[in-house]
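During the no-cost extension, the postdoctoral fellow (Dr. R.K.) reprocessed legacy sequence entries with the updated structure-token encoder. One reprocessed record is reproduced below for audit purposes.
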Amino acid sequence: MREKITYRIKRGRVSNAFEYIRYLPLRENRTIILSGCMLTYYYVNKDLKFLLDMKDKIDILLIGIGSKSYTRAEVDAVRKFLIKLRPRLLMARDLIAFSLYKDFAEHSFNGIYKKHVNIKVN
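Re-encoded structure tokens follow.
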């Protein structure tokens, strides 16, 4: 329910903005860079699904990426998405995101330079 309310209040026009990306002319070495709080249940199930159709034609870089919450449902949804997407680069904005998602990209980096910790999701 939180996602539906948030979408209606704050994100009602975001999905239209992402839809235009799929119509850009693709050339060699085309890259899409996403940043911010994009690894959420909402984004991977709605706005970012178009990337799955483009993944073999472009490089996808996730830089400074993370989530608002790391509940089991959210983490599972993001992992399922990243398994299919397999971005070229994932640079996390926090240790939790790095620990949870580092294995799902071709190259992964911890954007926050601190000792790696193991994170358990409840």
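The beta strands are 31-36, 59-65, 89-92, 107-110. The chain has one domain: 2-110. The remaining legacy entries will be reprocessed before the final report is submitted.
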